[in-house]
Design goal:
Layout (H helix, E strand, L loop, with lengths): L12 H4 L6 H8 L4 H6 L5 H17 L3 H10 L5 H10 L1 H24 L4 H15 L16 H16 L6 H7 L6 H22 L8 H18 L6 H16 L16 H19 L1 H4 L3
Helix pairs in contact: 2-4, 2-7, 4-7, 4-11, 6-9, 7-8, 7-9, 8-10, 11-14, 12-13, 13-14
């Protein structure tokens, strides 16, 4: 993760010497009693749907603080240190709201992993993070002096530090070892990744944070694969929802000039318009994979 907002801490020392948020998810992922809705969804196995949901919930929980981080990055450009502290203090309610969201999604992640019989080693980092979020926020050593004259700002800085820890969860070695093990099929691994990108796309679009996503060219590679999969798997007469998803993918790739593979690797990030389009594709995909009831929770 980009850690530039934590540089705010480096701007504050001069001031410091002065006075002054699962089991609910696991059920609908595997099956639904609504035959009409089930027929309109993509034809996937229950396991593939579970892994998609796992990628989705874990990313949602790990990056729930993105809203706070985005606003803190803007504040870091404020010249006045006193103004910075005041603005950070006013972000405390955002930090508390984001923390509640993170806790809820990580509890859902843990419950889902239990139904999937994930190994204890893979569950451990999720359980630890969930327990941390269930407890009161701990002030970091850098934030404690600041708490003397602006408790809200100290909470904000400590929350940003917590975000650093949470955002590394998807890359935890024990979790990655399970996800890439022979016990997890290649297709399940692919759908886990689709779920992760779907969540990040919506978060990035909502808060205009392209840095949360891979470069545009890498996203295009993923979307081309999804487009090709749909072309092979969709029925001769797709449902309106399936046709909308397929069309959205086609339009995104064409409009972005990314329909064909390029021999030149580019690190160019997604534009605001591309992020908005990708966020829309992500919502359509979630509806197709999880159904209306489950997808509405995201």
């Amino acid at each position: 993760m980009n850690t530039r907002w934590l540089l705010l801490v480096l701007l504050l020392p001069g001031l410091l010497i002065q006075p002054a948020a699962a089991q609910k998810l696991a059920g609908p992922v595997a099956a639904t009693d609504d035959r009409e809705e089930s027929a309109s969804r993509l034809q996937m196995t229950a396991t593939e749907r579970q892994f998609f949901a796992l990628g989705l919930t874990l990313a949602r929980g790990s990056f729930a603080y993105a809203e706070l981080a985005g606003e803190a990055t803007v504040i870091s450009h404020t010249r006045s240190k006193i103004a910075q502290v005041g603005k950070l203090g006013r972000l405390a309610p955002v930090a508390r709201r984001n923390r509640l969201t993170a806790g809820e999604f990580l509890r859902q992640t843990q419950a889902l992993m239990l139904t999937m019989n994930a190994p204890v080693t893979a569950l451990a980092p999720i359980h630890k993070a969930s327990e941390r979020l269930a407890a009161p926020l701990s002030l970091t050593s850098d934030a404690r002096p600041l708490a003397i004259f602006n408790g809200g700002a100290a909470q904000t800085l400590s929350s940003l530090n917590e975000f650093e820890s949470l955002s590394s969860l998807p890359e935890d070695p024990a979790l990655r070892k399970w996800l890439t093990s022979p016990d997890v099929s290649d297709s399940a691994q692919v759908w886990y990744g689709e779920g992760e990108i779907a969540a990040l796309a919506q978060i990035a679009a909502a808060h205009q944070m392209p840095e949360l996503l891979p470069p545009a060219q890498e996203i295009a590679t993923d979307l081309r694969g999804l487009h090709d999969w749909l072309s092979l798997r969709l029925p001769d007469t797709p449902t309106p929802e399936q046709a909308a998803l397929q069309k959205s993918l086609e339009v995104f790739l064409v409009d972005a000039g990314l329909k064909t593979k390029s021999s030149r690797k580019s690190q160019k990030p997604l534009s605001p318009a591309q992020m908005e389009a990708l966020g829309s594709i992500s919502r359509l995909l979630q509806l197709q994979v999880l159904g209306t009831e489950t997808a509405s929770r995201f």
